[in-house]
Amino acid sequence: AMRNSTFHQFLIFNGDTLFEADLPLMMEFCLTKKFHFCIALKYLENCSRYGQVEIDKNYNVTAFTEKGTNVSDGYINAGIYFCTRDLLNQAPKELASFSLEQDIMPYLVSKKKLNAIPMGGKFLDIGVPEDFLKAQTFLPQFKFINRTPALFLDRDGVIIKDTGYLSNITDVELYEEIIPIIQNANQNKIPVFIITNQAGVAHGFFSMQRCDEINQFVIGRLKDKGAIIQSCYSCPFHPNAKILEYKKDSLQRKPNPGMILLAQEELSIDLNKSMMIGDKITDIIALPGLESVLINRNYDLKNPPSDIKIFTSANQIPIRF
Predict the structure, then answer these.
(1) SS3 assignment, position 187
(2) 77 near 123, Cβ under 8 Å?
(3) In 125, 188, 295, 299, which residue has its Cα 20 to 30 A from 156's Cα atom?
């Protein structure tokens, strides 16, 4: 098909999957980065059915993991590809037919020429009978809707004072300066999400139930002041956890984008018009299109990336909604 086309750039889609990926964002990012072949990745909390795709901080694919070898969370190949005509030069000339996934991709990985970017949105793969059955109700109800900007907020250090492994509701202290920012988003019908690492659960300082109780208390305090939160996502995982259940290097743990990708399943979000506000370097989320800014609180913010803006208080942040 590529040889019979006069175009230089292409989008390729698997025929048995549906993924609510932001294609304009993907194409813009690939063109800016001058990628020749790029995979759209879907984040899953359990990848046991699929092979996983591992990437580095520059969106280079470093490895493919066979399905069934890992039941942890990770990225899978979502069946959407951006490529240029240069891909034709990678086709095995000795083969009359060949597999994109089995023949070309491993070769490109070995040459460090394969890229991939995480993307959010609803996903369905009808490759097994159970999901084919699921598609009978999923597809008739599915609707593509206009993407909305969103505001993502770290909890400790942005919404409330960071007391270190907060476990008592009585210790919750709101930063009043964040309230007008949330209210502004509410008035403009922009959803606001809390995105928070909670390693205290992993280390056994408090339970996940207590973490959820504190989150709901914070959301309730904000609501009382006319500031509405859409949802809260907490990551209890840590690679050095004392509680075995939470011991893993999860892609939900910031600066990884797993929690934001989960939020994109809840709502169709336009990352190009969204913002993440944090107070630590780990709050700079590695996700194409998303702007991250930091408030200088109690953490060392030396040597941040050159494109990251740092403010002394939340009320100085220029909100673009």
Answers:
(1) helix
(2) no
(3) 188
Structure tokens at 70: 């890992």
Tell me which residue of 59, 5, 62, 61 sits closest to 32, measured CA to CA: 59
Helix (H, G, I), strand (E, B) or coil at 130: helix
Interval 177-197: pLDDT, tens = 999 999 999 999 999 999 999
Helices then strands, counting H and E runs in the chain, come out as: 7, 14
- Structure tokens of 299? 């953490």
The position carrying tokens 């993407």 is: 147
* Token pair in block for residue 222: 């904000």
Neighbours of 175 (CB within 10 A): 18
User: Is the pTM for the entire model greater than 0.70?
Assistant: yes
Sign of the Cα torsion 64, 67, 70, 75 reads positive
pLDDT one-digit tens code per residue, 51-80: 899 999 999 999 998 876 666 899 999 999
Residue keyed to tokens 């000795």: 94
Residues designated as active site: 154, 156
Contact, 88 vs 141, CB < 8 A?
Answer: no
d(CA 115, CA 217): 42
CB-CB neighbours of 179 under 10 Å: 18
The label of the residue with tokens 């969103």 reads: 150
CA 153 distance to own-chain centroid: 14
- Rg for the chain (alpha carbons), in Å? 21
